[in-house]
Design brief:
By secondary structure, this protein is an all-beta fold. The chain has one domain. It has no helices and eleven strands. Strand 6 and strand 7 form a beta hairpin. The protein starts with a strand and ends in a 38-residue tail after the last strand.
C-alpha cells in the first residue's frame, strides 16, 4: 500500500511527499513557547492526534485533560478530520517546522526558493494541487518534482527545485 501523499504549497509553488504521520512545530509569537502537533493521515483526511505545549501563557492554556510530561503539557486535540490545513507563517517568530520520521526542518525548506515568504503554507491531501493538474499561476518552465519519500535517503532535499 502506498503511503498517503501530502502536498505542501505556498503561492504557486508546491511539492509532494509521502507521509502517513507528520509533526508541526512552531513558537508562540508572544510567549516564545514551543508548540507541537502530531498529525495522522487516514484515507483522504488528516487530524491531529497529539499536541504538546512547552509552557503556559497568554492565549495558550492547555485543556483540562492535559498531562504534564517532561515539561510539556500533552493532550489529544478534539478536532475534526481535515483535507486542507492553512498555516500562516509569521516574520515575528522562528520558522514553522515539519518533522518527518523524527527529522525536523523549516517547512519552507521543502519548497523552491522562489516560493513567496509572505504567503501562508498549505498542507493538503489533494494531489491535484501538487502537480497532477497545472497549478494556477505556475511559472513558465516550472515542473513539479516527483513526490519526496523520507525513506529514500537521509536527506530528502536533493529533489528540491532551485
Amino acid at each position: 500500500m502506498t503511503p498517503p501523499l501530502l502536498c505542501i504549497a505556498a503561492g504557486a509553488y508546491a511539492v509532494a511527499m509521502y507521509a502517513p504521520t507528520f509533526t508541526l512545530s512552531w513558537e508562540h509569537s508572544i510567549e516564545k513557547v514551543e508548540w507541537r502537533e502530531t498529525w495522522k493521515v487516514r484515507g483522504e483526511t488528516m487530524r491531529p492526534v497529539e499536541a504538546r505545549i512547552r509552557g503556559t501563557g497568554a492565549g495558550m492554556e492547555p485543556p483540562d485533560d492535559a498531562k504534564l510530561v517532561d515539561g510539556w503539557f500533552v493532550y489529544a486535540p478534539k478536532a475534526q478530520p481535515l483535507k486542507r490545513l492553512e498555516l500562516p507563517d509569521s516574520a515575528y517568530t522562528k520558522p514553522l517546522r515539519i518533522c518527518l520520521e523524527g527529522k525536523c526542518r523549516p517547512i519552507r525548506a521543502y519548497l523552491p526558493k522562489a516560493a513567496p515568504a509572505d504567503q501562508p503554507v498549505v498542507i493538503t491531501l489533494e494531489p491535484r494541487e501538487c502537480g497532477e493538474n497545472p497549478v494556477p499561476g505556475l511559472p513558465e518552465g516550472y515542473r513539479m518534482q516527483p513526490p519526496l519519500h523520507p525513506r529514500s535517503s537521509d536527506d530528502p532535499l536533493p529533489n528540491r527545485v532551485e
